[in-house]
Design goal:
By secondary structure, the protein is α+β, with helices and mostly antiparallel strands. Helices cover 31% and strands 23% of the residues. The chain has 4 domains: 190 residues, Heat Shock Protein 90; 122 residues, Ribosomal Protein S5, domain 2; 148 residues, formyl-coa transferase, domain 3; 99 residues, 2-Layer Sandwich (Ribosomal Protein S8, Chain: A, domain 1). It has 17 helices and 26 strands.
Length: 628
């Protein structure tokens, strides 16, 4: 007998839920789609009202063209759109929304109420929909324009609702979408309320005014105009002066035909234009608009429409880089800065750097601390690694191995034979005790190579240590310990520093307040999107308080996006990887021995937290094969 047919069409409600999986990922997705619809409706004033970061309410009110009764009903049908008539229109798109799935998708996973009226109609239309089912449709009196209320998002899809993050995290995503649309359309007035608190009140005006209203008055001084017109594309917008480059990402905006996009290749073009004017790891501010014939681009390559393809990427790259580079030159922004020069690293016994000497780091207090005597794991590691140095005798006849560093009663590391030596340093983060212990004299030759590698003679060859990787392991274990115990040492500032953060970064600060304080930062909120920094971790490299805090925020962003690890583990990894770079500097013999001591006392001296090798052993036999 033939088998029964098993393929059937899905009901609209289920098909809409499937589509919603692409279009509606979180409250920010709804805000984006509804704001874009309001822009397409020629609105000049838009109001956004949120409750619980959009979980319980997202309301968008605009004064746009509105919809007729028939259009209002049709707008919730899948593939219903006013912007596409034929296939060629897909390659001429200049509107924001065009797929005809947004409203159907939103209505499939929420309780939606629509009020809309055109200027010609005397009465407007009210439609209520829950989970794709129309509950009411009637004529009402209302203002010209459209009001969308989206309540209880994912109320009928518990698994999706449980997947949402905390309100602070979700609000950061909403703010990101709001700011992108606000920058793309400075001629539209936009307000944003969250839990009855006004977050933004942006009046219509010029782009420069919109940038200042969003990011703060301080941006007035750092903006430089950028413009380039060609037969292929036009570039316009603003860049930030190099001296204002920040340690955090997120204030880089590309718009193609007024649509926000992410494009790593074009971002690289901007960075190339800034080459030599900003330090590594810093990110310049820019809001750049590219105008191009829609026939030369494809915006249908990603469901969120934030990715784009150009038919001639190399030309766009070259024109964009030239435009930014010209802006840097015209405004005389380039500076001759030696970012490797660090006057805070001073020579032993001197309060000023010696002439002609290279700057170098002093090992901070925490790096000179050995693990507690009761740490059996550390003892085991130390015992194993001591075997490397067996047979190498110090000048006084004692074994020249790392066991000669014994834990003092104060908890620090003291060698069995040492020289007292005073050291004065300007950097508060590199402060050591007034009596600094020198490494024991030993026949075990140890030296540093190009501020990058440590070479040490062992009984059967040479041990190579990647200096940066070693510090990454040490810092990782320290940060993990601090975050677990919530006991980071704090260095109080003589003069508290007020810094400004973006609205989305402020949400992140509120979300991770305890973790930040665990690391040794002491701060309070001060006004809208401002913080007063009262103290910073006692052992971080000497830098401005704002730079340090921004770097921390950058690592917090990265660790929060890493779903494979626990937040504590991920944050510890990110911070260690970031700040280990600071210690790629010249080390004294004492500092080299202290580094080795701390590395061998760690839980895994062989590998960084990310799994990269720290130590390589070259035996005498292996060395011999090199010369054959």
């Amino acid at each position: 007998m033939p088998s029964s047919d098993i393929i059937q069409l899905l009901p609209d409600s289920i098909a809409n839920q499937i589509a919603a999986g692409e279009v509606v990922q979180r409250p920010a997705s709804v805000v984006k789609e509804l704001l874009e619809n309001a822009i397409d409706a020629q609105a000049t004033s838009i109001q956004v009202i949120l409750k619980e970061a959009g979980r319980t309410l997202i309301q968008i009110i605009d004064n746009g063209a509105g919809m007729t009764q028939t259009d209002a009903r049709m707008s919730f049908e899948r593939h219903a759109t006013s912007k596409i008539r034929q296939s060629d229109d897909l390659f001429k798109i200049r509107t924001m929304g065009f797929r005809g799935e947004a409203l159907a998708s939103i209505a499939a996973v929420a309780q939606v109420e629509l009020k809309t009226k055109t200027e010609e109609d005397e009465l407007g239309t009210l439609i209520r929909i829950e989970a794709s089912e129309i509950k009411a449709q009637e004529a009402i009196a209302c203002e010209t324009g459209t009001s969308f209320s989206v309540k209880n998002l994912f109320f009928n899809v518990p698994a999706r609702r449980n997947f949402l993050k905390s309100n602070s995290v979700e609000m950061r995503h909403v703010l990101d979408e709001f700011q992108r649309i606000a920058l793309a359309h400075p001629d539209v007035s936009l307000t944003l309320f969250h839990n009855d608190t006004e977050i933004f009140n942006l009046q219509a005006g010029k782009l420069v005014r919109r940038i200042i209203d969003i990011f703060g008055k301080s941006y007035r001084e750092q903006l430089a105009f950028c413009q380039e017109e060609t037969s292929y594309i036009n570039v316009r917008g603003f860049i930030g002066k190099p001296e204002y480059a920040r340690k955090t990402r997120g204030e880089q905006y590309f718009f193609v035909n007024d649509r926000f996009i992410k494009h790593s290749y074009m971002h690289h073009a901007v960075l190339n234009a800034f080459d030599g004017t900003i330090p590594d790891g810093s990110h310049p501010f820019y809001v750049l608009f590219i105008e191009i014939d829609p026939a030369h681009i494809d915006i249908n390559i990603h469901p969120t429409k934030t990715e784009i393809k150009f038919d001639d990427e190399k030309s766009v790259y070259a024109i964009l880089m030239a435009a930014v580079k010209k802006a840097v030159g015209v405004y005389n922004l380039s500076q001759s800065i030696d970012f490797d020069d660090n006057i805070n690293f001073l020579n032993p016994g001197s309060t000023e750097p010696s002439q002609g000497s290279a700057p170098r780091a002093v090992t901070p207090d925490w790096a000179a601390q050995s693990h507690k005597p009761g740490d059996s794991h550390s003892k085991s590691n130390l015992t194993n690694w001591n075997k490397l140095f067996e047979g190498l005798q110090s000048t006084d006849g004692s074994a020249g191995d790392i066991s000669s560093f014994e834990t003092s009663s104060s908890g620090g590391s003291r060698p069995s034979a040492y020289l007292e030596q005073s050291r004065t340093v300007a950097s508060k983060v590199n402060r050591m005790a007034s009596e600094v212990i020198a490494a024991p004299e030993s026949d075990a030759i140890t030296f540093q190579l190009h501020n990058r590698y440590i070479l040490s003679q062992v009984k059967d060859g040479i041990m190579l240590i990647d200096q940066k990787a070693a510090y990454e392991r040490i810092l990782f274990e320290r940060y993990r310990r601090m975050l677990s115990n919530r006991n980071g040492a704090c260095q109080q500032l003589l003069f508290p520093k007020t810094i400004r953060v973006s609205p989305s970064d402020m949400q992140l600060v509120q979300e991770t307040r305890e973790q930040i304080r665990s690391l040794g930062f002491e701060f309070d909120e001060f006004g809208t999107n401002q913080l007063i920094i009262r103290g910073i971790p006692a052992d971080l490299p000497e830098e401005s308080e704002q730079d340090l805090f921004e770097e921390l925020l950058e690592q917090l962003k990265q660790s929060y996006s890493d779903l494979k690890l626990k937040k504590l583990e991920s944050l510890s990894r990110s911070l260690a990887r970031r700040f280990a770079v600071r210690y790629a500097v010249k080390l004294s013999t004492l500092e080299i021995h202290t580094l080795i001591n701390q590395l061998f006392a760690s839980t895994d001296p062989n590998r960084t937290p990310g799994g990269e090798a720290i130590i390589v052993l070259l035996t005498m036999d292996k060395l011999a094969t090199i010369f054959k």
